[in-house]
Amino acid sequence: MNSDRYEAKRIAEDLEEPVDEASNLAEKLGLQPYPVNYWIVDYDEMNELIAYGGFQQRYPHWRWGMQYDQQRKQSQFLGGKAFEIVNNDDPSHAFLQESNSMADQKAVITHVEAHADFFANNEWFGMFSDDPDAAAMLARHSETIQEYMQDPDIERAAVEKWIDHVLCLEDNIDQHRPFAPVETDARDEVLDRDEDVEDLEAKLDELDLSEEVVGQVFDEDWLEAQRDDDGEVTFPDEPEKDVIGFLRQHGMAYDRDAEKAVTMTDWQREILEILRREAYYFAPQKMTKVMNEGWASYWESTMMSKEAFAASDEFVKYADHMAQVLGSPGFNPYKLGLELWQYVENTENRREIVERLLRVEDITWRNLHDRVDFEQVQNLIAPDPELTDVPSHLDGLDSDDPRVDAEALEDARDGEFDVAKYPWKVLTYEGLAERHYSLVEPQNRGFVSRVGQEELERVSRYMFDDARYENVAEALEDIDYTRGWDRMREIRESHNDVTFLDEFLTQEFVDENDYFTYEYTQSTGDYRVTSTDYEDVKKKLMLRFTNFGKPTIVVEDGNYNNRNELLLSHKYNGVMLDLGQAEDTLERVFELWGRPVNLKTIVKELDEHDIEVAKRRDREPEPDEQGKLIRYDGEEITTRDLDWDEVEHLAATDVDYDTKPDEWLA
C-alpha cells in the first residue's frame, strides 16, 4: 500500500465514530437521510469531483476540464476551499478531502447528513430522480458517448460539437413535469410531409433532368406548395417548455454538405436524449439550492454547536469554517437559506405560544400586548433544566418521560457511553426539540413580543380550539416544543426555492435581516439602493431562481409560417435577453432543428435624449418596450420589429415567477 492510500485509510478509521454518531444524531433530530457512503479523496480528486458535479464518471467533454481548471485556480489564488461534495443518490456518496482538519470533517459529515435527508424527502427530487442508482446511470451515459467518440465511422469532433449544441439548452426543460423519455417513433404530420418532399427531391435527382426543366416544372414554389397542400398546421397546441424534448421529437440535423435538413442519426438522437435525461436529474438541485443549503447549514449548526459535536478544542476551527461559508461575498444561498429556515422555525413556535395566550381568560388579539408580561412568558417557555444539562440530572430523569429514551438512559447509567460527550443519546425527538427551543435563544428572546396586530388577528380568526386557561402559566404548561421542527419538515417535503421565498419572505424577515434591492441608475451611472420593501426584495430574489435564473423560453410553433420553421418565444418578465447570447444560441438551435429558427422577445429601448434629460432632472428615464423577432436561416441573423399585439401575450403583468404553470400572469 502506498503512503497516500495508507493516509486515507488512517483518516477513514479516525472518522468511523463521527460518521456513525452523526447519523445517529440526525435520526434523533427527526431527519431521515439516505444512507451515506463516505470517501476520502485528495486535493486533485476533490477538484475533479466538483468539476464532474459530484460523480466520479461523466461523459468526455471539454467542459469538465474547464470547470476543473476554474475550481483549482479558485482554491489556489482566491483562497476558496472545498469543504464537501455530496450527490443525490441512494445511497448518497460524500467525499471528504483528506487535508481537512477534524473540525472540518465533522462539519462536512453533519452537513452531508442533512443534505441526504433533503434528497430523500423533497418531492422535487422524487419527481425527477427516478433512477435508483444515479451514479450507474451517469456512468452508462459516459460509456455510451465514449463509444460513439471512438467509433471510426463517427468523427469525434462531430460528437463534441453536437454535445455543445445541446448543452446550450440544458436548462430549457419543463421543471413541473416528471421526466419521461421521448418516444423514438413519434413524428408530427408536418415533418412527415417534409420528409416526403425530401424523397421527391431525391427522385428528381435520380431522373437526371436538366436544371432548366427542374427549375421550370419543379421549382421551389411548387415543392413548397406540396408541403402546404393540407393547409396551415400549427403545433404544439400549447407552448412547450421542454425545448430539448421537442427538438428530440421533431428536430432534424442540418447537413452542411447537402445544405439541407436530414434525419438525425442514431447517435445524435441518443446523445440528445442522454443530455436531456441528465438535465432533468440535476434540475431539482438547481431548483432547491437555497432551501437545501440552508437546511444543511441549519442542522449542521444544531449538531456541531448546540450538541457540541465539535469538541472544545475544535470549536474555534469550526466557527471559522462556518464564518467562511456564511460570510462569502455576493449572493449567498447558505446564508439566505439558513436565515429563512430559522425564521420559519421561530414564526411557527411563536404561533404556538400566541394561540395559547389567546385562550387565556380576558386576553384577546386586541389587548394581548397590554395584558401579557413577555418576560414571564420567556421564563415559562424555558426548557426543563434536566434536558439542558443531562449529565448533571442523569439520576433524576424518568424513563417513562416521553422526552427520555428509556433504553439509552439505562445504558448511560451503566456507563455504556460517555454521556458528557453524547448527552443527546438519552433524549428523544421531543426532548431534543425542547432542549433546543428556538424562542429561548438570546437572539430570539424578543421574537414573541414583536408579534404584530395583523398576525394576532389572523391567528385569532382561525383558532377553532375553544379550550380556555385561567392564566398565562397554565396556558404555557404544556406547549408543543416540536411544532417548529415539524413544520420545517413539512415545508422541506413540498417546496422549491421559488415557492419557499414566495411564502416565507415577509417584511418582518427583510427588516430583521437587512435585505434590500439595488439597481443601476441611468441618472447617476452607478448602483443605488432602491427599496427595502419585502415585495421588491422578493421579486428580485425570485427572478434569480425562476427557470434556474435563466430566461424562460418555450416552443410556440414548430411550423411557423407553414414552412417548418421553429418559433421560440421568450416569456418576458421585465428582464430582457442578452441579444448577443440569444443570437449565438439560435445558431446552435438551428443545428438541432435543421431549418430556420426564430425567437420572439421584448426589449427595452432608451433614447439618448431621454437619458440626458433624466440625468439633469435626477430621475430615471422610462424605457419603451419593443417586440423583436430574431431569425437565423443557417447563414445570417436578421432582426425585425414586431407590433405589440404580436408579443403582448409574452409580457407578464407582474413578475412571472414560473411556480404554477396554469396561473402564469401573462
Q: Strand order of the main beta sheet, please?
A: 8-9-10-11-12
Output the structural class.
alpha+beta
Determine the fraction of residues in helical runs and give it as a percent range.
Answer: 40-55%
Please give the radius of gyration in angstroms: 30 Å
Work out the strand percent: 5-15%
The largest sheet, given as strand count, sense and whether it forms a barrel, is: 5 strands, mixed
Please report the distance between the alpha carbons of the first and last residues: 64 Å
Low-confidence parts lasting 5 or more residues at pLDDT below 50?
76-80, 185-195, 656-666
In one word, what is the shape? globular
Count all strands and give the number.
Answer: 12
InterPro entries: Spore_V_R (IPR007390), SpoVR-like_C (IPR057008), SpoVR_N (IPR056174)
Protein name: Stage V sporulation protein R
Organism: Halorientalis regularis
Domain SpoVR protein-like N-terminal: 13-350, 473-548
